[in-house]
Write a structure and sequence with these properties.
The structure is a homodimer of 444-residue chains. Chain A has 17 helices and 14 strands. By secondary structure, the first copy, chain A, is an alpha+beta fold. In chain A, the strands form 4 sheets. The first copy, chain A, has a 5-stranded mixed beta sheet, with helices on both faces. A 4-stranded antiparallel beta sheet of chain A has the order 6-9-11-7, sandwiched between helices. The termini of chain A are far apart.
């Protein structure tokens, strides 16, 4: 009866009190409210919206449906980075060891890939032996020992969010900014952070198509953080083309390792540094952006960052040898160059088409139950704006078999557009949003 | 995947094609679309609306999910009456035998009471032995024999509607005019009617609070009828107080029998005649409203209408003796007068409060699974506008035991308001809506 009344009220544009959000969320998590009532309620939320207090109350209710880390006694700042997801986005794999090597604890909880976007967990699990499903107690011990842990949303963390997210995924109620923000923040707050940096992707490969929605999401998360004592800063970064060159799980781990060794592609490095600067500033361990940048360059230059990744991999049961020798990662049976069908400018490299191509190769998911082949994917060397000759290599396809190579070619023909002119790509980092407002980020 | 895309489209304010309504509805009826997806879809429908073609397509899809009667070979007009529901509304019990006794076939499919409104099936089942769950084949045979059948929605008729209605009831998506209209019409069209008369209740006891919604429902049903070759006429009638005096299942059957014998309360008779006029006109068996009225008065005056009720009861397994001797109906163990607490005008008799009082006595339902006690209820002799003295009887309470009498008194104290002045009640029949538009009905 409770659920019925709350559905009605939200349906009619009303609001729920904090206690009602709590009661409904916990009753749903406990199975006392059936999926169909929650589905109707979520659609009403999608169409009617939630105000700031409601979003905050939902976040807290989901947070309180499970356990959380208690990390204050570590005696160091705890900062995580969250990305709204894209193609080729292996920034977490670089940032987590890099920032942890600089004395800031990074309790990083990530997700799996779904649809065209990849997921950090899938990438990590391409490292032989790597375990992402740690208990909270194990995570705590590892954080105390090496300052970083890379895990999935455990069953203990925000189970109400877990259940509600799966339902939203099946009922076309995902793309609601307050619901997205509450879902992300309920998990992030469970990490007991002292600060959070968010990478909000822009452009055709991002899940929010319009700039005003991206800014609204940033502002919603910043307010939610402020309501719960966790400062949040967001950067808007480009996802009108893949980030870096490698797209595919093991290929991206390899590129992340190269980047930790100072050999990464410039766009990946720029986005990583921009987000890393925010993490170190929010942690209070850098005096200025320049100082933060110098600290990171040094950690990479001295090999400290790469070494920290080895320690993390080892701690989580993976083969640390992949850092020395990425050939220890799963290797695709077939690989073949993809050459330009004509001369001209690389007009576009469409992230969604690349993401669909990875799914076609077996390296992505259309449903949560799908298994992924970690070895497949693309390494795309052509960048929007490049001039290319007919027959010049644009990318390499990594596939399980010849049929995979053909489907990869098909995907790349759709994804990489060669034309007589190239639109200017989005700036890699365009906006910085914090509690003090929105700033445009100058191009480097 | 289909459901997901259709939910998204409706969510975003788009429309579904007829084939999509059909596919979604049949997939849901077959269990291929889960309740939670349909619940999200129905909430999107509730908030975004359906246009005329969509409402028509949904109606047809629900109709086609089951079987239907084929009655053209009966060689007579087939007319049903549907009411949006109220308190004390026993019009169907009078009209069905009355109109059938005049040579028009009445294949009447009714529902059960829920919340404050009563249901014709519950009333009929208070007649000892009366069976409302006939198969379509049995219904057809009885129609051919005696021109009338009084049944519930069989499992064969519009199963998609049945399933969807139960879901709407649990997800706060009932009060949507296109969904209501499609639900009613999918069942009515299965009766293979040549015409349908709708009684749309107005006032505090009706489920649609505003006149414009009542007119919109009327117009939606008229258009749906027109789209499917079934002329529809609607009358808007008063439900700011109970209709007639008896409220409660067996009590209402008794009052209906009295009315069929010419001894019914004037308000019940007036509404019955107004709807009956429309039924006979739409059937083409009366030359004018006056002719229709005279035919009905004669059927009642000669005993033909009451006798027809006996034949229907007998055909459906009930004890036809109740028509001669209503004492054969279930009798309450306790009955007690309820007297006016003060002198003054009867300002209001609140139907919802009366309906809740019947539920408290055990004669109504809050959930579909609840069993009802047919014997309990109220006979309310006080009418809005009456002048009453302190201690003058206003009603009689019929209860299972003394505790019931007390709960009945409590309900009547809330329901019957005595004041220093009385607001004018709504006209019994206020509007007539047909394919040619809305007319105000002059007061008699």
């Amino acid at each position: 009866m409770l659920a019925q009344r709350l559905i009605e009220r939200k349906r009619d544009g009303g609001r729920l009190e904090a206690g009602e959000w709590r009661a409904l969320t916990l009753a749903y998590a406990a199975g006392h409210v059936p999926d169909y009532q929650m589905a109707a309620f979520l659609m009403a939320c999608f169409l009617r919206g939630l105000d700031r207090e409601e979003t905050s109350a939902l976040t807290e209710a989901m947070l309180d449906s499970g356990d959380r880390l208690a990390l204050a006694d570590l005696g160091v700042a705890r900062v995580d980075k969250h990305s709204t997801g894209g193609v080729g986005d292996k920034v977490s794999l670089v940032l987590a060891p890099l920032i942890a090597s600089l004395g800031v604890a990074v309790p990083m909880m990530s997700g799996r890939g779904l649809g065209h976007t990849g997921g950090t967990l899938d990438k990590l699990e391409s490292i032989p032996g790597f375990r992402t499903s740690l208990t909270l107690a194990e995570a705590r011990t590892q954080l105390a020992a090496i300052g970083c842990v890379l895990i999935g949303q455990t069953k203990e963390i925000a189970p109400a969010d877990r259940k509600m997210y799966a339902l939203r995924d099946a009922t076309a109620t995902v793309e609601s900014i307050p619901l997205i923000a509450a879902s992300i923040m309920s998990k992030k707050l469970a990490e007991d952070l002292t600060g959070l940096v968010i990478d909000i992707k822009r452009g055709s490969g991002s899940f929010l198509p319009r700039l005003e929605q991206e800014l609204e999401l940033a502002e919603t998360m910043i307010r939610l953080g402020a309501d719960h004592g966790c400062p949040v800063v967001a950067l808007l970064t480009a996802m009108d083309r893949p980030l870096g060159r490698a797209c595919g799980n093991a290929l991206e781990v390899e590129e992340a390792i190269l980047t930790l060794k100072g050999e990464g592609p410039p766009d990946l490095l720029e986005v990583t540094y921009a987000l890393g600067v925010e993490m170190l500033l929010i942690a209070g361990t850098a005096a200025s952006p320049d100082d933060a940048r110098r600290q990171m360059e040094k950690a990479i230059g001295t090999g400290k960052a790469a070494e920290h990744f080895q320690r993390i991999i080892e701690a989580q049961g993976g083969n640390p040898g992949v850092v020395e020798d990425p050939a220890a990662l799963p290797q695709a049976a077939e690989c073949e160059l993809f050459n330009s069908p004509r001369r001209g400018f690389v007009a576009r490299v469409e992230p969604r088409a690349i993401g669909r191509g990875i799914i076609a190769l077996g390296g992505g998911r259309t449903k949560m139950e799908d298994r992924v082949d970690p070895s497949v994917g693309f390494v795309i060397t052509a960048r929007p704006g490049d001039w290319v000759e007919h027959g010049e290599p644009l990318a390499t396809i990594f596939a399980h078999d010849r049929a995979g190579v053909e489907s990869g070619k098909h995907a790349l023909r759709l994804a990489i557009i060669i034309g007589d002119e190239a639109d200017p790509p989005l700036p890699l980092v365009s906006h910085r949003v914090s509690g003090s407002g929105v700033e445009l980020v100058p191009r480097p």
